[in-house]
Every structure is written in C-alpha cells, then in structure tokens.
Design a protein that fits this description.
The chain contains 2 helices and 4 strands, in the order E-E-H-E-E-H. It has a domain of about 70 residues: Alpha-Beta Plaits. The model has no long low-confidence stretch (mean pLDDT about 85).
Length: about 110
C-alpha cells in the first residue's frame, strides 16, 4: 500500500441502533482498501468499539472516491451482536452446518 489509511471523525448522530460517531476511512490518494485494511484502521482508532459500514441504496450512491463510511457505537448496535451466537471463532465446519441448518426441507 502506498499510503496508510486515515480516519476522519465527522459528527455524532442518534440512530435507531443507538448513538453513533460517524467516521470516514480513506487514504490521501483514495486508493481502494480491503475489508481487513478498513477494519485494522478502525480498530487502531476505536479499540474495543463496534461499527457498521454503510452501503447506500442505488439512488443515493456517491461513487467519486474510495471513502468508507462507518458508524461507531459505544455499545454493540441493538440486535447486531453476532458474538451472542458465536462465542468462538467461526470455522469452515460452522459454515457448512449453518448452510445445512438453514437449507429448505432439511
């Protein structure tokens, strides 16, 4: 990677998921980032916090630069704490079982 990702802190907002800090993650030259690069940058700025990345509807898309929009929560966003179901790292065996359990007719 040419340049390290940066976090730009925007404003705090009240959301249906709880109070949140709106942030943007990007590099100075707006290069594309992997999910892991975004996550590492987020965690270095907000350790032990939760965030939700926003993907707007087609009619609201602004696709001028590689800027990643996240909302950081003080507590797990209501209804989204996946660790309540998965207390250990998720393995390939877990994925296979999850697929079979949710398959119609099984």
């Amino acid at each position: 990677m040419d340049e390290e990702p940066r976090v730009q802190t925007m404003d705090r907002r009240s959301t249906d998921l709880g109070p949140a800090q709106y942030i943007r993650i990007f590099t100075p030259n707006y290069q594309k980032l992997s999910w892991r690069e975004i996550w590492d940058c987020f965690c270095s700025a907000f350790p032990d916090k939760w965030a939700v990345q926003v993907f707007p509807a087609r009619g609201h898309l602004v696709d001028d630069a590689n800027i990643y929009h996240l909302f950081v929560f003080d507590e797990p966003p209501r209804g989204m704490d996946i660790s309540l179901k998965y207390k250990r790292p998720f393995t390939n065996d877990d994925w296979a079982k999850e697929s079979l359990d949710s398959a119609p007719g099984l």
